[in-house]
Design brief:
This protein is α/β, with parallel strands linked by helices and 323 residues long. It is 38% helix and 19% strand. It has an eight-stranded parallel β-barrel, surrounded by eight helices. Helix 2 (55-67) packs parallel to helix 3 (97-108) and helix 4 (139-156) packs across helix 5 (170-180). Bound molecules: ligand PBG. Ligand PBG binds next to helix 6. Mg(2+) binds at residue 232.
Length: 323
């Protein structure tokens, strides 16, 4: 036997030397949930260790993450039913919870990179990502709302705008609107291949944003499809996206690799709430070693081709020196 691949695995020094993929704090994006009130930090029951923060608590959380080397945050609002309506008007109201939170984070921590979410669902009385009329999602009318929301977020100081709604044409629509209003420096991270997934369940608990009727299958993608991801990604590229996102991550590693091989833009992957909840539940029962499972999952998402990983594990990973 001339070739013995085990020689390159014989010591930690050699294993490190030949390691093909690395995971660094700069690859991680931490999603954070915001809620009304003062000194509130309510744990999401289906996501142990993840909280809805009032704005004052959010600022403390951002500060402690920055100290750990975690620089990039994706913010999501949890809103009372009473402020929701059919047209998601709360999403661009001048002094809304979400816009205040963005402004305060950027004022106190200009070095933090703030990603903001563009979609109607947290603000919609229908719990959908678009305007609903007679059970149908109205694509082009929704673009107008997404545009207003994006501009309001850019005004508040967003570094990167992330449309998660899956309406057709939204990246180009938002890009043109931002450019026309002096925000050509604001980036767009597009949820390009976002699948209609069971793994969003805990997130919808966190925001109380589940659809009140129907499902999201007329806009989010069929989990059976790969080719369709190429269509979505090429449109987003032509429309001016700066990042292409695949979501969820773990059940879609093939899609991450497909986009990585076919496009030049950096790929982001969203290690979603349900993926987090599974690991936490198993670890709590002693069925999995949390550190090993989490680092293996994140490394696999990197190996598949993602530069950036949105993950609820981000703070744990850095606080416990798992990488
Ligand atoms: C909706 C949105 C969802 C997530 C991010 N933005 C859920 C959905 O489409 O219903 C899910 C994130 C997660 O599960 O962690 N615009």
């Amino acid at each position: 036997m001339l070739s013995r691949p085990r020689r390159n695995r014989k010591s930690e020094a050699i294993r490190q030397m030949v390691q093909e993929t690395r995971l660094h704090a700069s690859n991680l994006i931490f999603p954070l949930f915001i809620t009304e009130g003062d000194r509130r930090k309510d744990e999401v029951s289906s996501m142990p260790g993840i909280f809805r923060h009032s704005v004052d608590e959010l600022l403390k959380e951002v500060e402690s993450c920055l100290k750990l080397g975690l620089t990039t945050f994706d913010l999501f609002p949890h809103l009372e039913e009473s402020v929701k309506d059919r047209y998601a008007t709360e999403s661009y109201r001048e002094n809304s919870l979400y816009l205040r939170a963005i402004r305060q984070v950027k004022e106190e921590f200009p070095e933090a990179c703030v990603i903001t979410d563009v979609a109607m669902d947290p603000y919609s009385s229908d719990g959908h990502d678009g305007i609903v009329e007679n059970g149908e999602i109205l694509n082009d009318e929704t673009l107008e709302v997404l545009g207003r929301m994006s501009l309001a977020q850019a005004h508040a100081g967003a570094d990167i705008i992330a449309p998660s709604d899956m309406m057709d044409g939204r990246v180009g629509y938002i890009r043109e609107l931002l450019d026309a209003n002096g925000f050509s420096h604001v980036s767009i991270m597009s949820y390009s291949a976002k699948y209609a997934s069971a793994f969003y369940g805990p997130f919808r608990d966190a925001l109380q944003s589940a659809p009140k009727h129907g499902d999201k299958k007329t806009y989010q993608m069929n989990p059976a499809n790969q080719q369709e991801a190429l269509i979505e990604a090429s449109l987003d590229t032509q429309e001016g996206a700066d990042f292409l996102m695949v979501k969820p991550a773990l059940a879609y590693l093939d899609v991450i690799r497909l986009l990585k091989d076919n496009f030049d833009l950096p790929i982001a992957a969203y290690n979603v709430s349900g993926e987090y909840a599974m690991v936490k539940a198993a670890a709590k029962n002693g069925w999995l070693n949390e550190q090993r499972a989490v680092t293996e999952i994140l490394m696999s998402i990197r190996r598949a081709g993602a530069s950036a990983i949105l993950t609820y594990h981000a703070k744990d990973v850095l606080a416990n020196n798992w990488i």
